[in-house]
Specification:
Elements: H1 2-19, E1 22-24, E2 38-41, E3 48-50, E4 53-72, E5 84-89, H2 96-99, E6 103-107, E7 110-114, H3 122-126, E8 129-136, H4 139-147, E9 153-165, E10 171-172, E11 187-198, E12 204-206
Parallel strand pairs: 8-11
Antiparallel strand pairs: 1-12, 2-4, 3-4, 4-5, 4-9, 5-8, 6-7, 9-10, 9-11
Amino acid sequence: MKKLIVLLVAAYFAWDFYLKPADVVKLEPGVEADAVPTLSPITYSDAFTYKEHELIPKADLDMRGKVLSQEPYYFDRGSDVSPVDLAMGWKMMSDQAIVDKFTFRQNMRWFSWHSEGMPVKKLEARFNMANIHIIPSTEEITMQLKSVRTGDIIQINGLLVDVKSKKDAWYWKTSTTFMDNGDHADEILWLENLEILKTEEASVDGQKN
């Protein structure tokens, strides 16, 4: 019974934080993030511990982009450290007029997208999007994540990290480039700073994707 109560409480807070109906922001057409995010490889940095996991820094990330989709996780292996993924777009993939011609889906830590008309070249679209597994570095940032809406333009900064469990052999490897694809092509971000740069008060009702 005690375990059931704990699970119900956890499920409630997961709903309250990530799953309850949220607004989807629709900005005016135009490129809102016109630069490729900055990735600066780290040749050496001390690993640090977070929730019984060792985090191994691999690169600094500075990104301004549009939230194309977001998905919470609270039962998979990675949810011990990363409660949510943000699919981000920049350059032409931060333009609402282009984004509206795409559908996005996140599931089981994978990110997929589809467009019937393909308003831009496929490779251009692919290399200007990323699926980022977010590890909030503080409780304050965890709370800030709650206010992020699909469609927002946000600034995020932090460290791309590999994650190694201290309890078993589980290892989660980050990508350090936006030019890869397939397994280990997603970024794992120790999120140190988050700022919502552009949103709107009058948004349309929807669900977090």
